[in-house]
């Protein structure tokens, strides 16, 4: 299966135009998912939307057509592999303070693919935390989830994704979102677990002043691999996007980052910015970065920046002058990067689980 | 008061877009297309040594086996069956301008080449279609031991072994389809050898003019700058516009020795029917410095990414480039840098301007290999959109394979700032002058790196045309 394909490719020899995942995973449907909290104003439904009193089927169909970051082959994989869809609806004008927690417990040998659809109706606000974890650190298996989100007019969705899977897990995390007039979509991701992780994010800023704000934190140790593809399409006027990706690679870890800001004709006044900050901690790491800006409109602004490498000599000197060793300084800075993203998650329980996982990882 | 609309015109190519009709029997040309017979005919016509004929035929085989790139601008309008790969004036190369055929001499005089030679160059090579028609180098430069000659002479003369040792070793025919094409049908170009410790104070220049309709130009430039030597080489190119596709698939190979320095400057102004599929590559030994200065203004489609391999420890590369894409142009330009030596450093700084439906793409690849400890690299690209029917993309890839490296990257796309125009207008500058000034300043990174005469030419390409067009 070919996924995370760049819209505008570059030299094939760089091996970054896409990623290939073998589709030979045997889905046994095992693994446990739990919706832990259902706050007032939120409806949890299934694919047929029968239990959903807050919207009609038309809305569900609209969500189904949303394009995701991994592309068409992943789309058909999830359609084939996942029998049902978990639907989360925030009703019109309801400002839901408590997050909806969807937890997936994936143990050794589990293999499952799931689909989630989130609809925030006009004027609503909702936070959804999706947390994938394994009890054993070396658990092996497959977990895939496709998440489609529709942010209606003046609605706000904060989607949190936390990957704490076992280190021999293959994980596909495919996300698609469309944002209407005045809507905003915040995406906070922490990828700490899993052996081979693939993340695809496609955001369509369709409406006037629609916005996307993404923060991604990752830590890749040992032989962990992470492959990311972000595509943020600015269709609407005065749309805005910010994407920050921060992380560290150690041992023989490998990471690919593709980030595309697509300023489409007609998106006058749009602004897109992306920033990547990578700390390289070992000789054997491989880091590939491809921040792309596609610009088909004059009255726009697009920027990207990247900082890749070791800890800067200034910071290292400062820390060593205060008694820290090089390793301690690197650990501190790695935690600082990840904590920046972790602190955007306003849920104490999730905080604690991330903290515990990080302490274990650095032990 | 009505606010006047200001705009920046495309680059005026009338200076370059003139031609003299070929007279019957003046030129030798092969048939259109690409076959073993045609390749053999070119080789025979050029009096190639045997190994070169073998090399050409193997390259042709590789060309036939390789696919057209699937990641860049569309080149489906280029049909090799319609391209004449070798066109040569029958008089051959001359050592004085007086002996060059009248029409060809007039062409180069209109382009200012003889005058530049007299005033500011250490040597000149002038290529017309497939072969050089004039080559000369100053006596004092010859006395330093500098070799500057046409590739055909170099291939069979005193430096034949050196040429064979280096020819298409940096850019092998297997590199990509159009490198293979070059290997099969190359002709013309220059060979430069600068001995150890020799510093050539004023630049050498080669100028490539493609006059024939439906023809290709495949010149090969091979430069060897020895240890502690220093050279500035300038390359210029232009062509008149035709209604049929022309092709440029040249190849530049640069070998920069220990602690040597080479600056390679290009002002490219091909006509808008040209497919510019050129390959340039340099390799730097210990402590060497490679500097690229590149201005891309012409051609219908360009694939142009000069590559530098920083092989030696402490070697350094700077790439400074500007691309101006106007109506009917799709210019895909950028640079590639590979760090393999320790403490190597590189800096890419590019600007691009898109106008009147033109498409510009900045594409780069920065690779830092495992052994490149303490490497430092920076990539900076900025793009200016001058209207809402044009397009500008940036695709900078970075592949980092050591933790002991520092890599920075920044890019920006936008239009002329209203604030900057307002600021200048508030100081009494008209809107048209303000915008012209801003665009000119935007291109400053390249013009300030060129010798004065060439900076003036480049500014003529941009600024003078803008002046009359705004308002």
Q: Greatest interface and its residue counts? A: A-B, 43 and 37 residues
| Lateral arrangement of strands in the main beta sheet of chain A | 3-6-8-10-12-14-16-18-20
Biggest sheet features of chain B: 13 strands, mixed
Largest β-sheet summary of chain A: 9 strands, mixed
What proportion strand of chain B?
35-45%
Specify the oligomeric state. heterodimer
Report Rg of chain B: 22 Å
Span from first to last CA of chain B?
Answer: 14 Å
Please, how many domains of chain A?
Answer: 1
Quickly describe the structure.
The complex is a heterodimer of chains A (363) and B (471). Chain A has 363 residues and is an alpha/beta fold.
List the helices and strands and how they pair.
The complex is a heterodimer of chains A (363) and B (471).
Chain A lengths: L1 E2 L15 E2 L11 E4 L6 E4 L11 H8 L7 H10 L3 E6 L9 E6 L5 E10 L4 E9 L6 E12 L4 E9 L3 E12 L4 E8 L4 E10 L5 E10 L4 E10 L5 E10 L4 E10 L7 E10 L5 E10 L5 E9 L3 H8 L5 H17 L5 H15 L1
Chain B lengths: L26 E3 L6 H10 L4 H16 L21 E3 L12 H9 L2 H8 L2 E6 L2 E7 L1 H5 L3 E4 H6 L3 H7 L10 H9 L4 E5 L9 E6 L6 E2 L2 E6 L4 E9 L7 E3 L2 E6 L4 E9 L4 E4 L1 E6 L4 E8 L4 E4 L2 E4 L5 E10 L4 E10 L5 E10 L4 E10 L6 E11 L5 E10 L4 E11 L2 H9 L4 H12 L1 H4 L4 H18 L2
Parallel strand pairs in B: 3-7, 6-9, 7-10, 8-11, 9-12, 10-13, 11-14, 12-15, 13-16, 14-17, 15-18, 16-19, 17-20, 18-20, 19-21, 20-22, 21-23, 22-24, 23-25
Antiparallel strand pairs in B: 1-2, 3-4, 5-6
């Amino acid at each position: 299966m070919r996924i995370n394909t760049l819209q505008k490719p570059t030299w094939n020899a760089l091996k970054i135009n896409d990623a290939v995942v073998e589709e030979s995973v045997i889905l046994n449907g095992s693994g446990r998912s739990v919706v832990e909290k259902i706050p007032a104003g939120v409806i949890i439904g299934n694919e047929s939307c029968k239990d959903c009193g807050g919207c009609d089927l038309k809305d569900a169909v609209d969500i189904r057509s949303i394009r995701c970051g991994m592309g068409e082959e992943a789309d058909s994989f999830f359609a084939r592999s996942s029998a049902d869809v978990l639907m989360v609806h925030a009703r019109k004008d309801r400002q839901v303070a408590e997050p909806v927690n969807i937890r997936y417990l994936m143990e050794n040998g589990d293999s499952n693919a799931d689909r989630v659809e989130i609809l925030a109706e006009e004027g609503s606000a909702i936070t959804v935390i999706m947390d994938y974890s394994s009890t054993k650190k070396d658990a092996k298996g497959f977990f895939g989830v496709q998440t489609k989100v529709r942010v209606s007019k003046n609605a706000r969705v904060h989607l949190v994704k936390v990957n704490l899977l076992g280190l021999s897990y293959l994980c596909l995390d495919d996300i698609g979102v469309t944002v209407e007039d005045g809507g905003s979509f915040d995406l906070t991701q922490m990828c700490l677990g899993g052996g081979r992780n693939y993340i695809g994010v496609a955001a369509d800023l369709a409406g006037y002043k629609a916005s996307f704000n993404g923060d991604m934190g990752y830590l890749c140790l040992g032989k962990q691999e992470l492959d990311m593809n972000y595509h943020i399409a600015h269709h609407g006027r005065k749309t805005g996007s910010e994407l920050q990706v921060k992380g560290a690679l150690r041992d023989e870890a490998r990471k690919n980052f593709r980030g595309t800001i697509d300023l489409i004709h007609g998106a006058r006044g749009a602004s897109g910015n992306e920033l990547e900050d990578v700390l390289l901690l070992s000789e054997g790491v491989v880091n590939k970065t491809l921040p792309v800006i596609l610009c088909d409109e004059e009255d726009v602004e697009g920027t990207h920046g990247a900082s890749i490498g070791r800890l800067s000599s200034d910071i290292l000197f400062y820390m060593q002058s205060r008694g820290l060793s090089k390793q301690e300084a690197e650990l501190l800075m790695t935690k600082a990067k990840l904590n920046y993203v972790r602190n955007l998650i306003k849920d104490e329980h999730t905080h604690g689980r991330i903290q515990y996982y990080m302490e274990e990882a650095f032990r | 008061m009505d606010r006047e609309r200001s705009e920046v015109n495309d680059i005026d190519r009338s200076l370059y877009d003139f031609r003299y009709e070929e007279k019957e029997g003046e030129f030798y040309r092969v048939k259109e297309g690409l076959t073993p017979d045609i390749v053999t005919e070119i080789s025979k016509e050029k009096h190639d040594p045997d190994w070169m004929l073998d090399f050409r035929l193997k390259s042709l085989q590789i060309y036939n086996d390789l696919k057209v790139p699937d990641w860049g601008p569309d080149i489906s309008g280029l049909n090799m069956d319609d391209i004449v790969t070798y066109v040569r004036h029958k008089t051959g190369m001359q050592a004085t301008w007086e002996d060059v055929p009248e029409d060809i001499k007039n062409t180069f005089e209109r382009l200012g080449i003889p005058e530049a030679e007299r005033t500011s160059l250490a040597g000149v090579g002038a290529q017309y279609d497939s072969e050089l028609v004039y080559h000369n180098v100053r006596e004092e430069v010859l006395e330093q031991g500098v070799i500057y000659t046409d590739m055909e002479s170099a291939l069979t003369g005193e430096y034949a072994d050196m040429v064979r040792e280096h020819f298409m070793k940096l850019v092998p025919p297997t590199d990509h389809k159009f490198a293979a094409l070059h290997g099969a049908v190359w002709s013309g170009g220059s060979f430069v050898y600068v001995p150890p410790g020799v510093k050539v104070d004023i630049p050498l220049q080669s100028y490539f003019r493609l006059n024939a309709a439906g023809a290709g130009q495949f010149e090969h430039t091979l430069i060897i700058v020895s240890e502690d030597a220093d050279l500035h080489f300038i390359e210029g190119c232009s062509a008149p516009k035709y209604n049929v596709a022309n092709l440029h698939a040249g190849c530049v190979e640069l070998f920069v020795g220990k602690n040597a320095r080479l600056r390679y400057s290009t002002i490219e102004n091909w006509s808008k029917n040209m497919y510019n599929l050129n390959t340039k590559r340099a390799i730097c030994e210990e402590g060497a410095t490679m500097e690229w200065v590149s201005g891309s203004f012409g051609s219908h489609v360009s694939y142009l990414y000069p590559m530098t391999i920083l092989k030696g420890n402490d070697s350094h590369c700077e790439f400074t480039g500007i691309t101006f894409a106007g109506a009917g142009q799709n210019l895909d330009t950028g640079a590639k840098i590979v760090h393999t030596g320790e403490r190597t450093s590189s800096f890419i700084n590019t600007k691009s301007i898109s106008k009147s439906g033109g498409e510009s793409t900045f594409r780069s690849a920065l690779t830092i290999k495992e052994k490149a400890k303490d490497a430092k690299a920076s990539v900076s690209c900025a793009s200016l959109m001058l209207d809402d029917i044009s397009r500008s993309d940036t695709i900078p890839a970075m592949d980092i394979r050591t933790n002991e490296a520092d890599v920075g990257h920044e890019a920006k796309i936008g239009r002329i700032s209203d604030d900057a125009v307002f600021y200048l207008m508030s100081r009494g500058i008209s809107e048209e002058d303000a915008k012209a000034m801003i665009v000119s300043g935007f291109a400053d990174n390249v013009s300030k790196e060129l010798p004065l005469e060439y900076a003036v030419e480049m500014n003529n390409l941009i600024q003078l045309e803008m002046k009359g067009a705004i308002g």
